[in-house]
Amino acid sequence: MPKQHHESQPQSQTDTTSVDDIQTDDYRSELPGILGSIDMGISRLESILLATGVLLMAINTISNVIGRFVFQSSIFFSEELNRVLVILITFAGISYAARHGRHIRMSAIYDAMPSSARKPLMIGITLVTAVFMLGLAWYSTQYIMTLYGRGRVLPSLQIPVWLIYVWAPVGFFMTGLQYILTAIKNMLEKDIYLSTNVLEGYDDDEIEV
Amino acid sequence: MAVAIFSTMIVLLLFGFPMMIPLIIGAFIGFYTLFGGLGQLETMVQQMMAGIRPASLIAVPMFIFAADIMTRGQSAGRLIDMVMSFVGHLRGGLAISTAAACTMFGAVSGSTQATVVAVGSPLRPRMLKAGYNDSFVLALIVNSSDIAFLIPPSIGMIIYGVVSNTSISELFIAGVGPGLLILLLFSIYSWIYAVRNKVPTEEKVPWGQRLTAMRKALWPLGFPVIIIGGIYGGIFSPTEAAAACVLYAVFLEMVVFRELDLRGLYNTAKSTGLITAVVFILIAAGAAFSWVISFAQIPHQILSGIGIDQMGQIGVLVVISIAFFIGCMFVDPIVVILILVPIFAPVVENVGLDPVLVGTIITLQVAIGSATPPFGCDIFTAIAVFKRPYIEVVRGTPPFIVILLGVSAALIFFPQIALFLRDLAFR
Amino acid sequence: ETWRYAFEEALDEVQGVFAQKFKEEVEANSDHTVQLFPYGTLGESADIMEQAQSGILQFVDQSPGFTGSLIPEAQVFFVPYLLPQDEEDLFEFFRTSVAVNEMFPELYADQGLELLTMFPEGEVCMTTKEPVTSPEDLNEVKFRVMTNPLLVESYQAFGATPTPLPWGEVYGGLQTNIIQGQENPMFFIESTKMYEVTDYITCAGHNNFTTAVMANKDFFDGLPDEDQLMIESAIDVAFEHILEYQQGLHEESIEKIKEAKPEMTINILSEEERQPFKDAAATVEEAFIEMTGESGKEILDQMKEDLNQVTN
Ligand code: NA
Ligand code: NA
C-alpha cells in the first residue's frame, strides 16, 4: 500500500480486508487557499460519485431481476442505466485514483534505478501522462459535440447519447491536472511522489503473517 | 508501424508509466499514422467508450462489491473456516481448495476478473497466514481463475462458435476435459509446492468441530446456492447473480451478523468504484488499441507472410496457438477471436481439422493470454485489488504457464483430451 | 485507393455475402480495393455507423432497426406485417419502392450518409422452448428482443414478456431458461446455434429483417462520376446477387438445422393462425406514428402505396 504522506503512523491493516479504505478526510489538497478548497471539494465529490455509482448499479441490476421474476416485466432501460453508471464510475474513479497514486504501473526497472534517476523519470512520466490525459479531455469533448450534432438517442431511455459521456472529459481533465500537480510537487520537494499525496513505494508489511 | 508501436509500448511499460499510458500511446501512434495526423482521434475516444460498454462487464464491480462486503464482515471467514476444517490437515489442502474454488466460481460466473476478486480476496489472506508465499498465491488465483474460460458457460466459446459456425454445445463439452486436466495439474503443483516449501499443516479437526464449522457457515453457504442455483435455475444471468450476491451480502452483514453499518457500506462501495475505475480505464485503452490493430489489418499482414497454406494439421494448430497466445497478450480476447478466427477458417477447413478441437485450443490460449504479461486483464485486476506490485503478481506465474503450455501441446497431439467427452455425448 | 467497408454480421452471413460480391465487382471494374470488416472487428453497429459518418469507413451496412436511434423513421421496418410475405412481391417491393429508393435517401443524407441500397435478409422466425400457434402461447414467455421500442411494443402486443438481454448472453439465457424465446432470420438461427437451446421454430410472417448499405456522403460526392457509377452498378449486381442467394436460403438453413437436430419442430403458421397476430399488431403501427410524427406517417403511407403497386 502506498504510504499516505500526511500520516505519521502507517495505516492500520486488518488482515482479512483485501481492499483498503481511503478516507476522503485524509486527502489534503496541495493547492493554496481557495484553490485548495475547490480541489478538496472535487475530491469529495468524486468519492461520492464513486460510491453512489456502485450502489445504484447494484440496485438497478437487482430491481431488473425482481421486476422480471416477480412482476413479469423487465426494466427496459436497466442496461442503459448501467452503461451510464459504468462511465460515471470509471471517469470519476481515474481522477480519484490519480489523487491517491493508485493507477497500475509496472515499476520493476524503475524501482531498480537510483533515486537521482528516478526523480527526473517520475517528473517525465507524470508530465507525459498529463499531456495525454488533457489531450483525451479535449478529444472527448470534441466527440461529445459531434454526437450532439448527430442527435442519436439511446433506444430505451430515448435520451441523447452524448449525455452519457459528459463525465469523460471532466474525468480526463481532472486526472491530467492531478498529474501536473504531481510533477510540480516532484520538482519542488526532495522526496519522490506518486501523486500529490502519496510517496512512492509499496508497503511490504501490508499483511501481518 | 506494428514494430514501432509494440516496442514503444514495451519501453513505456518497463519504465514505470501508469499502464494506461502505453496502451493509449500505442493507440495514438496508430491513429496518427493511419490518418496522417490528429484528425480522427474522436474515434479513439469512441473506442475507449465502447471498451467499457459490454453489459457483462457489470459483473466485475458487482462481484468486487459483494466479495468486499463478505470479507469485511463474517461471511467469508466462516466459509473458509469450514473449508479449512476439512482440508487444513492435508498438505497443500488450502491451495488446492483455492484452485478448485476459482475454477468453480469462474465457470459459473463467466467472468475471470470477478473470480480473481470474489475468490481471491477472502482466500489470499488466509493462504498467506497458512504460510504460502504471496507470489505463489497471486499466480495460483490468477491462473486458476482463467480455467473458467474452458468450463461452460464460456463467452469465448460462444463467440468462437458463432464466428466459425461451430456447435456451441459441442464446444462447451469439449472444454470440460482440458479444464479439469489443468485443475488437476495445478493441484499437483500446489501439493509439490506445499511439500517443498514445508507449508505447515494444521491438526486434523474432529467431526464434532467440523459440524460446528458447518453450522456457522450455514448463512454464508447461501452464496453458492444463489450463484449456482440462480444461474442454472434460470432466475438470473451471471451478471445479475453478482448483484444478487451484493444484496445477500448486505443482508447477512448488516442484518444477520451486524458487522457492517451504513458508513461501512458506503466506504466499501467507494473502494469498489475505485478498483473498477482503475481496471476499466485499462480495458478502455485496450479497446482503442485493439481497434488500431484491427483497422490496420496487422494480423493479416503478419499471417500472410508465414506460409500457413503449406502446413499440415499439426503445423496449423501450432501457428494458431502461437497467434492467439501472442494476440491475447496485448489485445482483448474477444476481439482477438473476432479478428483471427475468420483469417484461419479457410486453412482449418482445408487441412480437415475438427473445428471443435480448434475452438478448444483457441479458448485455452485465450485463458493463458489473460493471465500472461504484459497486458492481461486478470493481472490488472489482481494488482488493483490486492495492491501488490506488478512484478510480484507475475513472479509466481512461470510454473503455471509451463503447465498451461504443456496442456496446449498435449491437446495438439492428443485431441481426445477435448474430444472424448464430445464424442461420448454427440457421436 | 483502399476503401473500407464494415458490416454487422460474419463474413459468410447475408451482409457478408453482399459485401463480398460488392468487393468483387469493385475490384474487377476499377483499380480500387475494398477491405472488409465483419461484425465486431471495428466495434458494434453503432460504432461502425459513427465511423462511416466521420469518414474513417467509406461503406457501412447497418440495419434500420439500429439506425432507428439516429433516424427514427427507419423503424418503420419493425411494423409487423407491413412487408409482403411472398418472396417475389418482397423483392419487387425493394426494387421499386418510392419510400425506400427516394424518401429514405434524403433522411440518410441529413446524417451525412449516401444510402446506396436496402435489401431484405430473410423472414424473421421465433425460436422457443414450447410450441407457439397463437398469441396465447406466448403468455408469460420471456422473449428476448433487441432494445428497440417498436420490437418491444410488438412482442407486448403478441402477449409475450419482452426481455432485453445483451446478444452475448442470449445462448446461455436460453440454456438456463432465463428467457424462453428469441427471434431472428432463419440463417442467423442456424449460424448462431439458437436451435441448440430451443425446441420450436415458429414462422408467423410478421417481419422480414431489412438492412441498408451506405457510403459516407462527402466521400461519395467527392468521387468522379465514373467511380460513382461504378459503385452504383456494383451495388446493383450485389443486390440482385443477394436476392438470388436468398431464394432457398431459408429452406437451406431449415435443412441444416434439421440435420443437426432432427427433433427440432419447425412450424410455418397458416393464414388463420397468423390472423390473431396481425390483429394484435395494429397497435404497433399507432406507436410508430406516435414516435415519429408526421414524417413517419408519410413514410408509412408511402410504403403502403408502394406495396399496393407490387401486389396488385
Ligand atoms: Na466459464
Ligand atoms: Na495477457
From TrEMBL, chain A:
Q: Where are the transmembrane segments?
A: 48-71, 83-99, 120-139, 159-181
Bilayer topology annotation:
Multi-pass membrane protein
Q: Bias regions of kind Polar residues — which residues?
A: 9-21
Residue ranges annotated for the Tripartite ATP-independent periplasmic transporters DctQ component domain, each copy included:
57-185
Location in the cell: Cell inner membrane
Which InterPro entries is this protein grouped with?
DctQ, TRAP_DctQ
Keyword Plastid tagged: no
Coiled-coil intervals in this record?
none
Entry keywords, A to Z = Cell inner membrane, Cell membrane, Membrane, Transmembrane, Transmembrane helix, Transport
What segment(s) does the record annotate as region Disordered? 1-22
Q: Mainly localized where?
A: membrane
Described by its record, this protein's role is as follows: Part of the tripartite ATP-independent periplasmic (TRAP) transport system.
Subunit record text: The complex comprises the extracytoplasmic solute receptor protein and the two transmembrane proteins.
Belongs to which family? Belongs to the TRAP transporter small permease family.
Q: What is this protein called?
A: TRAP transporter small permease protein
The gene name reads: uehB_1
From TrEMBL, chain B:
InterPro entries, per this entry? DctM, TRAP_DctM
Entry's family note: Belongs to the TRAP transporter large permease family.
What does the record note on quaternary structure? Answer: The complex comprises the extracytoplasmic solute receptor protein and the two transmembrane proteins.
Compartments in which it is found: Cell inner membrane
What's the protein here called? TRAP transporter large permease protein
Query: What membrane topology is given?
Result: Multi-pass membrane protein
Cite the TRAP C4-dicarboxylate transport system permease DctM subunit domain residue spans from the record. Answer: 7-417
Q: Which UniProt keywords apply?
A: Cell inner membrane, Cell membrane, Membrane, Transmembrane, Transmembrane helix, Transport
Q: Main localization of the protein?
A: membrane
User: Where do transmembrane segments lie in this chain?
Assistant: 12-32, 52-70, 136-160, 172-196, 217-235, 241-260, 272-294, 314-344, 356-386, 398-421
The record's function comment reads: Part of the tripartite ATP-independent periplasmic (TRAP) transport system.
